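B., you asked whether I could sanity-check this one before it goes into the benchmark set. Here's the sequence:
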Amino acid sequence: MAEIARRSGVGSATLYRNFATRRDLLEALLVDEVELVCTAASTIDADTTGARLTAWLHRFFQYVTNKRPVAVELLQHTDRDSPVFGASRDRVLAAGEPLLRAARDAQDVRADVSLDQILDMIVAIAKIPGRPDYRQPILDTALAGLRHV
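And here's what the prediction gave me:
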């Protein structure tokens, strides 16, 4: 916590006033980032519904890769069944469903996979070891497979 306070430019007392434990801080970081991903679902602009969905899925991928260390650290202080993980997943699904539904209605994406499955695929790709430029073509190929045939 002292290192976090130092990097943030605040005193330890300020940090502890706002976050009693490391777990509280990690949960707040995760929740804040989830909020940004959910907001992006309604603000992403693209020419087609399929392109909007794909752009948002790229944003989700960015979230997963950037916040993975936070989630891993949080798992050291809680377990996967923690409400913060379930609630976050539910919020992301609720934000993304309208994008998927619109893309399906426009026949921009296939109808045989759920958003849950798509997000699981993206998380799996994000876990692949290596540099981001190694994972990016894998993600692009997987998302191309969502297009309606």
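One thing to flag: The helical segments are 2-8, 12-18, 22-43, 49-75, 83-105, 115-126, 132-144. Otherwise nothing jumped out at me.
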